């Protein structure tokens, strides 16, 4: 865990009562039975490394995938222009902020397993912005890009995008009027249009008429498209399906007669491979609840692993009254009906009227096969009704591990009919967990873990303005937008997506905007949804796919936030992959992973899946290519010829002042020089990290002749200084803490580089070597000066409060804020991780524990100290400690 925007801001609205100890920081056992992301048999897509590099600040942010078939301890080596700049070891992030890179830099990532390079891939996506544009072949000024789905159509491990074009005269089923044709395109991520399918005049345009089922249905390594077609549909090669001369539109624009088809299209060419009659024909229109064509053509679709091995297409028809679902497989490039579920027209039939404007797939009964969630009903993998709540139709739902303390998954559903309001159900049984009451149609709801200040997911919706916890208890009165989610910043809490704006819940009553996708528009009116969100490439965070305001491009926005989390690509989680296809259906809903993600829980077990098309590698180096020392605990010592004269250039810095306190930030990684573990003791290791607290503070003490001893502020800043181990001068010699003795191996000269940074030259080497780091989590060591960015440091002056105890500054970062309060609660509830001897990088220190005791008259650190900090920040107290 690190101090990030989430931690410092999310603490802002913690309920600081003592009872909060039990709701913060306590790790729950990963729900492995339901949450490993795969059953060991499911066949999923082979994916390449998915490297992207985008402009971030003055450098480049580089990100890549950790796939399900990569080793648990896989090491990733990132090269810029064939120079090693970062090594990601087990547990390290698969992304890196390269402050030395630019848009012309060429990046490569090698995966090393068991000491051997198992893959070596070059970055294919490089941008001078934080997005990539796909220029579209717009079919006319009346068309805008709408829903998207992804699939790998050629088996190269890179997704292609299936795009549905929406004409400006598209209609809701309740509206009469003729519409222009519905078109589906397929584009590569590089922007090449592969084909266009025209569904023709006998398919009406609108949210509820056309959905796209995309997956590698026959597991041959290449994705197909399955969708509803009709006479006059033209495939990607120009072939017309059925009778192209027919026009079944009536005077009001509805299509209530004529044959209905389902067609399998080749993903690479758009060619129609097979066409069958639509599994559930419309029959008599009025049997569906009206005679003008509203309810009969309410469609849904997605994919689900019904046999636990390969994806099936699932297609729904009807939900206000008669509820039907069909499951379709692909065998030998032919469509094969697996089963059909149908309540018929009997109102008393179980499941009748219990469908949504959306669908989700998930394995709720732990049998390795996915069920279909239609809203108030759940259909088992065998096509039989598993349960129905009887709560009828709704507009939105979310299915995932929303309450990690409960076994299995949960469903969050809003209701258009009685009982109205919103309900949380057990996904396996349909039994209510809790209900939020309302008196009329409740059109929206949302649930996910979006706030670190509450354990588990947060729940809210259109019933009222409140946010609720997993017991249905109100925790805030300022609800976020209720349309969509996205994993965007570096923590494990999810962010809120609404239109082109991404926001973060930073307190029980506080929502902060963190990103705006300028120049882009959302879809589907007040639903304000993107074309798609998906873990398209890069690390586990999601990309945001939107249309540009002029409808000429798809814009793929990429996060540039750094993270400490290594997580397998979400697209290798069975549930997320299936729900990612389901998201495009009717009233779009965001996909959810099968496990719980949150800063209050351990990371999930890795997914157990099979891959469809892992290629033979012919481009792997025989031995790892290393052009710079690999980041290790102790850098490799190499022998170099040293000239008789020091190679230090530039003038000694006059800006470093005797007695001043500094934090030293590396120019290459942006991380700080600091003491591992935050404990002052002999031979304590010096490394770099994101920490900027007491462990990263040093007092410059003049040793004469322009040299300084750097004395750690740990242990009240009196005993320990930065030290070149054993007075050695060889490259790779470790830098550590040792008892202050003013020896040459504890004296350093600051040499200005001319850009505000310095080299910290070691006197023991005759100024030939300096303090060096290699890699973003690298160890700090002595190395001959070579001009690399890992040898340049910015000296940031630190002002501290007089006296050794800074009351309230629990994390010892020089300020009192609500991050200090949350650290108190975490240390109390989970001392193994966050206590003085905790395993987390930014655990409590001995000094921090002293600082934390700011209430109760010296009774030690308690939850009352966290409450005192909150009151101080709210202005209820003028100073700390509380007297």
TrEMBL record:
Q: Which organism is it from?
A: Ruminococcus flavefaciens
Output the GO biological process annotations, alphabetical, semicolon-separated: polysaccharide catabolic process
* PROSITE patterns recorded: DOCKERIN
Keywords tagged on the record: Lyase, Signal
Lineage runs: Bacteria, Bacillati, Bacillota, Clostridia, Eubacteriales
User: So which residues are the signal peptide here?
Assistant: 1-20
Q: Name it.
A: Rhamnogalacturonan endolyase
Q: Which GO terms describe its molecular function?
A: lyase activity
| Domain named Dockerin: residues | 803-882
> Out of the domains of life, which is the source?
Bacteria
Pfam families reported for this sequence: RGI_lyase (PF18370), RGL11_C (PF21348), RicinB_lectin_2 (PF14200)
The record, for PANTHER family, names:
RHAMNOGALACTURONAN LYASE (EUROFUNG)
